[in-house]
Fold:
Amino acid sequence: MEISAAELGELLNGEVVGDPSVRVHKLSKIEEGEQGALSFLANPKYEAFAYDTKASILIVNADFEPAKDIASTLIKVDDAYSSFAQIMEQLADRSRKSGVHPTAFVAESANVSEDAYIGPFCYVGEGVEVKAGTQLSAHVTIGDGSLVGKDTLIYAGVHVYHGCQVGDHCIIHAGTVIGSDGFGFVPQPDGRFKKVPQLGTVIIEDHVEIGANVTIDRGTMDATRICEGVKLDNLIQVAHNVEIGAHTVIAAQAGVSGSTKLGKHCMVGGQVGFVGHISIAAGSKINAQSGVAKSIKEPNKSWNGSPAFAFSENLRSKVYFKRLPELVKRIDELEKALAIHQNKK
Amino acid sequence: MEISAAELGELLNGEVVGDPSVRVHKLSKIEEGEQGALSFLANPKYEAFAYDTKASILIVNADFEPAKDIASTLIKVDDAYSSFAQIMEQLADRSRKSGVHPTAFVAESANVSEDAYIGPFCYVGEGVEVKAGTQLSAHVTIGDGSLVGKDTLIYAGVHVYHGCQVGDHCIIHAGTVIGSDGFGFVPQPDGRFKKVPQLGTVIIEDHVEIGANVTIDRGTMDATRICEGVKLDNLIQVAHNVEIGAHTVIAAQAGVSGSTKLGKHCMVGGQVGFVGHISIAAGSKINAQSGVAKSIKEPNKSWNGSPAFAFSENLRSKVYFKRLPELVKRIDELEKALAIHQNKK
Amino acid sequence: MEISAAELGELLNGEVVGDPSVRVHKLSKIEEGEQGALSFLANPKYEAFAYDTKASILIVNADFEPAKDIASTLIKVDDAYSSFAQIMEQLADRSRKSGVHPTAFVAESANVSEDAYIGPFCYVGEGVEVKAGTQLSAHVTIGDGSLVGKDTLIYAGVHVYHGCQVGDHCIIHAGTVIGSDGFGFVPQPDGRFKKVPQLGTVIIEDHVEIGANVTIDRGTMDATRICEGVKLDNLIQVAHNVEIGAHTVIAAQAGVSGSTKLGKHCMVGGQVGFVGHISIAAGSKINAQSGVAKSIKEPNKSWNGSPAFAFSENLRSKVYFKRLPELVKRIDELEKALAIHQNKK
Structure:
């Protein structure tokens, strides 16, 4: 990318204020702008930075009237954030490839769209289907009989086991494992454990994004299901038979134990754990590091703690937890006042 | 799979009640049975589902007498769960392969059984030994001088460093790393850290199952050891010089710090952490998200909390933690009653 | 390795006491010494083991005078630990290779030093630079336009996305992902989430060691930065726009949320979580499993708990947490003494 203010003004249908010949080659936040950078001002809270920034071009809202001189060339548009995001997306739209890299191996019975790309050292197993526009980066495994929808990006070193499904318009980041055996064992009388065969599958619906080094186990008999629009961060554990409801968002290092069902539109913080076999109501918000040990039936509430309970109550308990030494002193004094023998301390 | 009730009856040595020509092609739980599914009823708690299920065939105990009409064909056997498990295992027993995939690379000095299978893009290093029946899926690395026993399954993208040992009848899921350097550094006077070379190894005994994206560091001088029959879930950290005792089971995202020894037959919940250099008695049960900061000497007890203490005591403390705001009010009132000046709140 | 006491004495410039012809072929700790093992005694606390150890050779400090008979041959040196560490380092210095493995793929426009080694099934993308002495193990991906400095070790299955930088003298363990997209989404009015393109990069400075299966996301517009000398253990999450200050050490399974900056020389325990957009003062010590929810401004202090507060205060609160049931009893008795109606229990 290397573009002038005049060209940007035309692209964004905006008004150029300042030198139209100034050129930019990268994006930056307004407070970190350097020469050659394009930045934007949308939130009035950041206005002060506009007078100091070294960014060469600033995209601003049409109604922005500088209170002082600004060194940057301005592009005035209807919605500065949207216009900046439009530029970001154009830059992010890395060119799609098609075809099979010469080092890749595609099984004879696999059905790969001519419009898909199979990257270096990928292994595409027997009976696999890969639809149009989908891109497999290097070292990806798609196990026998699995299906990958269209326009999906699968990054390096993702391993999809046999018989799983990945939807359309998904993104799966490097190192993620889909379809490993669920953790199911039957204790034997002699203290050993016998494996319960894991014969189910994983179904990932459309528009799902999954971070790096995530693990999603296959169901025991049915499917572990990641519903439409779900976003999972890195290093998340999804156990067998779990269902993550549509448009639920889960932050890094959280874990969901077997057979638990999360509703739609939940927001789960980092390092949260859910025990198995519970149901979480739609719209639940779970604070980071919480441990959810029981089903949540009321939708759209916030939860905190391990075990988790209502967010605001939990905050109050945590405040008093911090003051416990002081509370103990107060009890000591009360006992002294009442001359209760303090042999319990 | 596609089998009739008559064939199943013969296979399981059971009595067919209903239409013997009905055919099934998949397994399901009784409450989720569909046409064409085989299910089972073992636990009387689930009996109600038997009258509603759409499963075409139900395996039931010989003494089961339906209280109402059942649409499914029944197969009466001595032990319904065992018979169903037998079918699961037959389905799970995916055909073993042998030979070396044409895209794999096996070093000249490696000793691979003719009866083992080396999958696509596997790298088998110098002096490696892989015994009969063992299956390496795609993209597996077995580092120089390492040994993999017989009838072991290693899934895609597992990386075993040099000089490690994996036993017989093990299963290691995708993305797991075995033999990475332990985290050992000596602080220098200038605030830098100097690496302590990690010269030990990892020994994984027989009948161990390890989940996906697990990390097991090699010992500093000796071995990190995973004893016989241990089952590890996904995303678990096992630091250098750790020993996990035989038949211990650890749930996902738990971590064991350096040189800690877990006894036999322990059960460790998800996201548990152990500090380094402690010993955990055999049969200890550690609740999810606990932090174990001291050795546990008494065997077969349950622990909870961070830092962990006895399970039932911890539960009580957690109940009162939730009630802390109420306790503070009671102290307030006591002080009021005694006219103690409340300047400490 | 296989070396005699006489040879060791010469190598370490030490005095041999005992049989100079004794030979060792491995290292061990003094308390676990076996025949054929070389061990050392530096800390007087361990002196008792010197009289029992089966290690064939012991390196000891020159001023060590045995109080009893010792079976092992002694090598007396100025600093026993340093001499032993010297032997460890010599053993650890595995021979460096150079060249490109025949199964690897290096893009035509990549610039790989003749003195670097590109291992089996590695993919080195367009415009990549790999400097002298650097070693890529098997199945490594270096994405288009990325740079790897000199004398860096990258173990099997590490995936570096496009446009990232890894410094000189770094070590990156197997399965680690560098440069995956940060977790950034804008909620839409209909409850869906729209991806914020992640256009930044990851910069890893010199002398950094990163454990196995770690994830480091690229910045949104700028760089996620791992500064000089940082040591990261396994399974750590580093979100977009994070900066980890020089010589900071982080234990396994910790996570740092987006845009948080850790100062220099911090020590972070296992399973710790940091919320996003905070700053942590240099030299902060964060205890394992803590949750850091606010910026830490005072340097060189210790913190504990979730949410974290000052370490010693937190310990006191945790002691009283354990005694909560007893505290409640004391309040009960106070109320009884004052005849306050106990309807609140």
